Every structure is written in structure tokens, then in C-alpha cells.
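User: When convenient, might I ask for sequence and C-alpha cells for a protein?

AI:
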Amino acid sequence: MATFTKKKLSGSTDGKAIKVTGTSTAATVTVHTAVAGTTVGTFDEIWLYANNTSTTAVKLTLEWGTATAADGNIKLTILPEAGLVQVVPGLILQNSMVVKAFAGTADVILLTGFVNAIVA
């Protein structure tokens, strides 16, 4: 039977929000690095929420395991002052794949969330 352990995002300090500081793929911030290896049934289930603290809509780009557009890019517009908006609903990664982020405006998008570490 698989076990689940809830963890903070590896890019977070003490579970706090991760500020998206970069505005291009060359200036991404690391959100989370998935579990190492490719063992069947062992994954990180990642849940992410975005908060836009500005007064204008901002485009957020998540690089999901690769920086190659469009293979791993998840793009969405986060409305201003909308509170926590779910941007990743429990998608899985493994093999040390990295989730990174950048936004159309620096320093206004905050990412929060958690990981369910699943071990078969």
C-alpha cells in the first residue's frame, strides 16, 4: 500500500510563500524539485496556489519539469487581489524534475502550496 506524507515546497522557507521575482525563463525562481528516481508508484503530488498582490492582471508561467516551451509550460493570468487562486491541482512529478516560475511583472505573484510525497 502507498503512503502519503505532506511536505512543504522545496523552494519555500519554512512553508512561507515563494515570491516570483523573475520576468523571463532566464530569471526563474525554483518552486519545487521532485523526488529523485523513477520508482513505479513514487511521485510528488504538487498543489500550487498563486496570489497577485498588484492592482493589475499578471501572466504567470510555470515551467513544469522543463524550460522548453511549449512542452512544459503552464501559462495563466492571475487577476489582481483575487486571493489564493489554484494553479496546479495535484499534478505529479518524479525523477528530480524541477518546477520553476516567472511572471509578466516581478515581485507581485506569490506562490504557496504543498506536496504529497507518495511512496509505493
In short: The chain has no helices and nine strands.
